[in-house]
Amino acid sequence: MIKIDSQLIDKISLQAQNCERKRKNYNFHKIASDPFQRLINAIEPYSYIQPHKHENPDKREVFFVLRGKMAVIEFDDMGEIVDYIILDSKTGNIAVEIPERTWHTIISLEKGSVSYECKDGPYNPDDDKNFAEWAPKEGDPNCKTYIEKILNKLNLKISEF
For the chain, which domains are there? Predict the structure, then answer.
């Protein structure tokens, strides 16, 4: 039995807060070739996840909010926002499934936000994600500005506490 409790969530969340990328994952699958990838993903505000899609090979992704609040955003091929959801267990929006071949990103809206993610495997870093050319690459100095632009378009704010 694999247990997901507050102690584990606290531990992974603290690691995310203390690392440069401001996010940390904890894998439950034992090997990258597992056909069903499962992980906890702790994401702090302003951690940048470049919009991407899973195509060739096609993969679906599901995010369940365990703690905090996160925006999951879908884009069209030109980088325009098509749809979004705020995952927040307090409002009843607890999960979202992203179909294969769909541009998307996640933005943490609260400190300590943690999701449980499931994705088709296997994981191969060479072809797992197709990154959007219309968005800054991770590490680009414009990442924070890009996040703020998305938040402004959606009239969302990151909670400061």
Answer: 6-153 (2.60.120.10)
